Each structure stands twice: as structure tokens, then as C-alpha cells.
Amino acid sequence: MRVVAEFKEEANSNINMVAAATEELIATIDDIAKNAGTAGTISESAVKKAGLASEKMHGLGNFAQSIGKFNETITEISEGISEIQTSTAAAELITTDDKEVDNTSGHISHSCGDLKANAVKLAELAKTLEQLISYFKLKM
Predict the structure, then answer these.
(1) Alpha carbons within 13 A on the beta-carbon side of 52
(2) Are the CB atoms for 132 and 68 separated by under 8 Å?
(3) H or E element in which residue 94 lies
């Protein structure tokens, strides 16, 4: 009888240990589930932030292209001014031949027209740059 009582006591002890281990296992599983939920939330936030960063990079790319166009227009204007200066200098040197003066004047007039067109482009690009700068100030 004593042996049966000892076995019963040992079995109860083993059942209690299994129950305690099961409770610990359930608590661990709960922690894992909570951590998985937190990881999911963090991942969603990271995806949103990556999307915003991608959008900003796309905007910066557009901004850089606009700056490139702006620089090209400034270069064209500078070249036009150089042509006008060259033509004017040539006109001053060639005052004896009226046909040459007329040709040079025509060239200067044409260069001035090109310069005016480039100035209009420059003004349009300046407006675009202002809009892009305002856009990035709002986004950042």
C-alpha cells in the first residue's frame, strides 16, 4: 500500500510539473503571438515609410530634371548673348559695307528673338522650380 501511495504521490507530482510546464508554454506562446503582432505593426510602418521615401526620391528626381532644364536655358541665353556681342563687334568693324551691316543687324535681330524666347522658357522654368520647392517644403 505504501508503494501505491508513493506512486500516487509521484504521479501527482509529475502531473503538477506537466501542468506548470504547460502554463509556462502557454505564456511563452502568448508572448510570441504578441511579439509577432508588434513585428507586423513595425513592418507595416516600415513599408509606409519606404513608400513615402520613394515618393520623395521621385519628386527629387523631377526637381533635378527641372534644374537641368533651367541650366540648359541659362546656357542657351549665355550663348545668345555671346552671339549678340560678336555680331555687334563685327557690325562696328564693318561700317563701310552697308550689306554687311544689314546682314549683321539681321543676325543680331534673330539672336535677340532667340534670346527673348529663351528668357520666356527661363521664366516658365523658374515658376516650375518655385512650385517644386514649395512642394518639397510641404512634404518634408
Answers:
(1) 10
(2) no
(3) none
Instruction: Scan for cell 510602418, then name that residue.
Output: 45
CA nearest neighbour of 81 among 31, 115, 37: 115
Residues 6+ apart with CB under 8 A from 70: 122, 125, 126, 129
DSSP alpha helix (H) spans, the chain: 2-93, 98-139
Q: Give the C-alpha separation, 83 to 75, whole Å.
A: 12
**pTM, 2 dp:** 0.47
- Would you give the distance in Å from CA 64 to the centre of its chain? 10
Report the percentage of the chain scoring pLDDT > 70.
77
pLDDT, tens only, 79-120: 777 777 777 666 666 555 555 555 656 666 666 777 777 777
Please report the pLDDT score of residue 24 as a whole number.
Answer: 92
